[in-house]
């Protein structure tokens, strides 16, 4: 598709970025993770969505999962009866607390361990106690419900969320929605330094009086820090330190766009980081008083669930109430929607190229994409396992 | 997907039912018959749908078929012009009784033998008499139009319908509709003893004061009789004789559901049977005065035409009129719709698991499914031929 | 699907036409050209659709193309940013005349040569000048915008349009629309002599008092002339000279249709021809004063853009105005729509058979199809290159 001339020698990361066809083997594990990384925690919903005794069906990493709440605790079981594969959620039945019964033949499972405890249509059946449907470890934190899709014992949740996310004396509020792109397009859109060009007319800029450049010129490779030891593992990009922000755009030396800056703008997005299994942290954003987290949870090869969470330090119930009021009045619409709706649109636009056009081989990266390159390498090296298609796992 | 522990030794059929992965080779022919069994009779419509001279297009076993009526007799011809593959039915033309002309170039075929008899656009063309489009043997019986999709001479219709269906002094009334599941999901749903659990709240139960248990506990393997000699061939399950009906459901010994029985309920469904190529008979149902037949005719790999037919003994025109009135006022809505709509829903729910999830390998049967196991074996052993995809047959 | 008996010996073309399975290797190149022939000119729109500075996205031969007009001249560039594959057209940006900028990261290309001239988000980036997006040669003629999808220098436009199309002292008016069939079904429908059967009730016949037979009986092989030397290359069928027109249709000798002819009908369609890469000329049509051209431009394997153009000799501005008025009042609706809508319908009907049913192997041609046979051979021998799928070309 493109004419590619020799890139400059010397700058290692820059050359990588401009020769993506050759370096793609360096992030093979990431390319294989079409359905995400197995053996990690991922959010699947907000706690308030799952009332006591209610059933909620979600799909994460291609696995159908049924959520419910029993005595205050969220339980997660694979949403497939072992008998004939019916989804419990098609008509969820609970005849006794802590169980789910299949609507088709009354096979009844204990939600604690997934074991078949009774068959309503055939008491005393020899299959009772001999069949099990997989269940998933669940943790609730910061208003979110996290599920562990993987094998063996799960790690601590703190290993799979950005530093600071679980901090005490903070409060989180957010939304979620389904985006029609692979989850990796989501992560890369969020972490991408120069995509802010597309936000140049966002209502958020004037609405919250923030300074948002059109782009960045990297000045130093040290801008991108790889945290590959311990957990969580991630890549940190200190935008405010190692880049020259671009507030005026020129073509052939002639200015064609100028940001109107008065000098009193709020500073945001000083540091952007991304963490395994695929979580963004923008600190601060969309206001100096807030941190924005984004989880891009794989649903299928072509869809991800987009969790947008705002975090603020709070020291009292009053602080929480104030935050909730602000969230409802300002941040949800001006930030999570108005601003990020553009990102959702961009991801859905890119999906076709990366899916049908073999974009991973045909893209042509450039130096500001070095943060993305580092993320792909980190994920390839440290993702705990490639999630196989659900149908292949039985 | 499931943890499968050792099943009990001894009980042969029970072990089969609980170890489906191992026994699937025993019904290989059935698994191959995604598009149904070739060389059998199947209904494709009701006689009253095909008026003299009218054209009706249907698809059976993946084959496009054009039906019409000539001098009272139904004719069936493949719905494809031999010339460029146009479907006659896109704009059916008849310039002379007993023929169909293609709308594109006027190729005209004799419906009796499918031979190209004239070309309206090119009189005397050398192709006349040298090209033939396949035709299908047709028989009308009990208000239904049966077509033979197969090779060679067809057997008697009586070989491919349940015993009693063609009995004199009976009258049949029914409906048909398209269900979005493979035909085998349809057969197995109908023949399945314990799926009645899902009907426990059906309006039919109180509406017609019938006794319908939640399920059954098999007491004896003799309950299922295989009729593998002569024709028709089928599997008969005598529910009223060899099962303990379940009218009360318990979880861990605690009752959670009780059927309200007063003792004066009508008895139905004493015997359920299924016959090649895939026809259900429920005797009696949904009333002691009626027998219900169900034909699950393959359309494509993912759809079947569902024929629901009620039969009653009649000895006079008056009996027929009474039956027709009852059918219109009661049985169509309360039985064929209200009750069986649940079955349609169940089949469409199961389709994804059996299609994409390799359900035939991943299902986990249990003892009451032994009737299904016997049906699969019978069909594998005696189905007269696997129907190939239409495109592969030319 | 059909019974095929031996065709007559001797008549070579006739045997071909009745033994398509055997001769298909004679038009292998044509069968391979699912996405059309590369290295030819094809129309992609009308000049009036592309205003100065406006952006219009089209797809031709599976390639996404962005059109715009700069200082009066139409420019065409591949509609994919080299960076991450975003379509410029999703949100076209022009910050400086003669360039297009990508909405995602501000990569900016010179439309003259496709070279990356600036990156708005990262001034001075080393990728500037080192990346190029393909551009396409463009010519405007007779109100149409032609684009060359191919390699190397394009031939003269006159090589890829029917003789007479570029004649001075003529004026062209037309419409375009997307048809859901492969482009070859389009060409063959237009060039097909006996398909006029389907137009027998067209409003155009009485509306313009023209004589249109039901079909034709070929009398002489000389009717079809192959122009395989020089360019353009095409096949010419002199309908008025070497066929016996059929105005009365019979079945088994009994008349079933008679065209009402009064003797004063206008004569049209005396000569029909088709030219590489796939352009029809009907001379005259739909009126003795007009010639109709049809371009069937491949979009994807299953869609083509259908350009219908009427040409008339003109000697003054007044003639053009008269033509425009007639076109608006009569020819657009009565000819290009009412009459040709039937052809669009026929092509979409045939698509399934040729796509899924392997129609190219299963069709059964007959003598009047010899014009189609000659076209397939010519195209196979002289098409300048098979267009590969877009995704495979990068």
UniProtKB/TrEMBL annotation, chains A, B, C:
Domain of life: Bacteria
Iron-sulfur among keywords: yes
Rieske domain mapped to chain residues: 41-147
Keywords: 2Fe-2S, Iron, Iron-sulfur, Metal-binding, Oxidoreductase
Pfam families (alphabetical): Aromatic_hydrox (PF11723), Rieske (PF00355)
Basic and acidic residues composition bias: residue spans: 1-14
Record has RNA-binding as a keyword: no
Annotated SUPFAM superfamilies: Bet v1-like, ISP domain
Region described as Disordered: spans on this chain: 1-20
Record's protein name: Rieske 2Fe-2S domain-containing protein
Organism whose genome encodes this protein: Pseudonocardia benzenivorans
């Amino acid at each position: 598709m493109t004419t590619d001339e020799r890139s400059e020698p010397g700058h290692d990361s820059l050359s990588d970025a401009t020769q993506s066809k050759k370096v793609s083997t360096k992030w093979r594990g990431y390319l294989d993770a079409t359905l995400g990384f197995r053996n990690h925690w991922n959010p699947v919903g907000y706690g308030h969505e799952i009332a006591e005794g209610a059933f909620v069906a979600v799909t994460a990493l291609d696995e159908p999962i049924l959520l419910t709440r029993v005595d205050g605790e969220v339980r997660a079981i694979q949403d497939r009866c072992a008998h004939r594969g019916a989804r419990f959620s098609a008509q969820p039945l609970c005849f006794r607390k802590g169980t789910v019964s299949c609507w088709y033949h009354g096979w009844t499972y204990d939600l604690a361990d997934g074991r078949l405890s009774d068959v309503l249509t055939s008491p005393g059946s020899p299959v009772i106690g001999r069949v099990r449907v997989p269940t998933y470890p669940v943790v609730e934190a910061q208003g979110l419900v996290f599920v562990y899709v993987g094998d063996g014992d799960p790690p601590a949740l703190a290993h799979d969320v950005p530093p600071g996310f679980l901090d005490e004396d903070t409060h989180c509020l957010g939304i979620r929605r389904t985006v029609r792109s692979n989850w990796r397009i989501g992560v890369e859109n969020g972490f991408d330094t120069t995509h802010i060009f597309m936000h140049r007319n966002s209502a958020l800029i004037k609405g919250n009086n923030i300074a948002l450049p059109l782009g960045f010129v990297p000045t130093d490779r040290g801008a991108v820090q790889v945290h590959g030891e311990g957990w969580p593992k991630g890549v940190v990009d200190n935008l405010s330190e190692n880049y020259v922000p671009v507030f005026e755009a020129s073509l052939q030396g002639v200015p064609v766009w100028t940001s109107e800056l008065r000098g009193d703008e709020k500073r945001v997005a000083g540091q952007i980081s991304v963490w395994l299994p695929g979580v963004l942290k923008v600190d601060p954003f969309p206001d100096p008083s807030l941190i924005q987290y984004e989880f891009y949870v794989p649903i299928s090869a072509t869809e991800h669930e987009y969790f947008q969470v705002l975090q603020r330090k709070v020291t009292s119930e009053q602080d929480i109430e104030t935050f909730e009021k602000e969230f409802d009045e300002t941040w949800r619409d001006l930030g999570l929607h108005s601003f990020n709706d553009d990102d959702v649109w961009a991801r859905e636009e890119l999906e076709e190229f990366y899916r049908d056009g073999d974009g991973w081989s045909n893209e042509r990266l450039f130096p500001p994409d070095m943060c993305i390159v580092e993320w792909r390498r980190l994920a390839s090296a440290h993702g705990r396992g490639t999630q196989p298609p659900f149908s292949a796992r039985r």
